[in-house]
Amino acid sequence: MFMSKERFLKNISLTRESRQLEKRRVVIAEQKANDIMNQFQYNIQSIREKFAIYDELFENGKKQHAEDVLRSQIVFLMSALDFYMHEIVRYRLLKMFSGEIRKTESYKTFIVSLQTVEEALKNPETIDWLSEEIILRHSHKTFMASKAIKEVLSLISREKIFAQACQALQTEHTTATKYMDDIYRRRNEIAHQADRPHNEEKQHRICKEEVEQYIDFIEKFVQHVHRLLMEEESKD
């Protein structure tokens, strides 16, 4: 027997009490925003600390091993970026669902499964089901290439966050886009090709200064993105 329209709307509507529950959850989410950024900064610090290992190996004449440390830093760096993007996207989508920040057009077309809808109807007092759905939907995606980052930022913000972050970096949009994609390409060559061109045995050259520049760029980019998102949130 089909449920009537009136009964369906009654079941899915939030009562005043449940709305208050969701608002209390958002207080926790605001604390989590700082946790997301703190985790990113911790990851960056950990990556930088590996320079000490590089220096020791290099000074002891183990150049190949030292360079492999640099390569690992690039992989860890882009993983830190990817993890930050996944976490901040989930955080922002939950805030939109709770009505604490304004929804984007992309949010309105975010797809959830019928199984998730059933879970939501059974548990109106929590939004854990949505958090799990976001993780599932994005589990096969990476947010390291500039195009992917721009797209996912448009999902969680009404502003042109990527362009504004580039401006804050005092870098041309096209220059920053290319630089980020160059780092991502290098990361893929290291992770999937042992940092070698196709059909060649010799690895690409790498130096400490290059990796330091990569780390500085990604760190500052994420810092500006986070600041811009929090500023937007404070206005909602």
From TrEMBL:
Residues 47-230 form the RiboL-PSP-HEPN domain. It comes from the Bacteria. InterPro entries: HEPN_RiboL-PSP (IPR041519). It holds the Pfam family HEPN_RiboL-PSP. This is RiboL-PSP-HEPN domain-containing protein.
